[in-house]
Design brief:
Blueprint (H helix, E strand, L loop, with lengths): L10 H5 L13 H14 L14 H10 L4 H10 L12 H8 L6 E6 L5 H6 L4 E7 L2 H11 L8 E5 L11 E7 L10 H11 E11 L15 H8 L4 E8 L12 E7 L8
Parallel strand pairs: 1-2, 1-4, 2-3, 4-5
Antiparallel strand pairs: 5-7, 6-7
Helix pairs in contact: 3-4, 8-9
Length: 272
Amino acid sequence: MWVFSPRYLPDAFLLHSNLASRFKPLRSIKRLISTTRARMESGGRNDRLDNPKSDPSKSKLQEMLSGSSSTDDGWDKCWEQGLTPWDLGGPTPVILDLLKTGALPNGRVLIPGCGSGYDVVAIASPERYVVGLDISDSAIKIAREMSSSLPNANYFSFLKADFFIWHPTELFDLIFDYTFFCAIEPSLRSSWASKVKDLLKADGELITLMFPISDHVRGPPYKVSVADYEGVLHPMGFEAVSVIDNELAIEPRKGREKLGRWKKRPLKHACM
């Protein structure tokens, strides 16, 4: 079984002790990594994201979001109160594996709903400029404070913005979506697909880590299926290059995550 290992992280990510300063009671990056490893091996807090019976925080999360006057206000309160069960405390294992094996496209990358920005920092390089986008001021503040002094800081940026109305000056070669599609109201999924189409270059790629594939009710996270993605992406001219089980999912999510890679169909075949 794959186990989270700090050897997958850039040296700068490991050595920068300030990276963990915002995640109390974590006092050093070594403790951050060991905590992440323990969570991934034992299940830890991460099973709370899809199982309200194992932890009442999911119900509290839903109540906080539904009771907020605006979407950004609700997510901001979650970050302020540390109610972030979706946060792995480190980069997503499968994205690290894609990076290690050279399977990630170069160019401009967008990660919507980036949260504390672990994935952004992990894959940013001279060949890959990464933009982390989040609607929460608090999340963006945490991400910036953790990463602003890293040696690869020139190759990523964090922006507070609403994905659905944001208009960047340049398009992207890759969009990575994880715990974003499942966090938005299902009624917005068609708008999500339309925005993805608008933000990607003609030959760009969308990578979706699809979770939670289950029969639970309410949300967020809202249950998803491959058909849910196909239903909104196909009309936008996307086809699945591959959809596979995510064998690198953390233990509580094994069997409930799939990795999808999507590309736009050639224009002559795209839906008009």
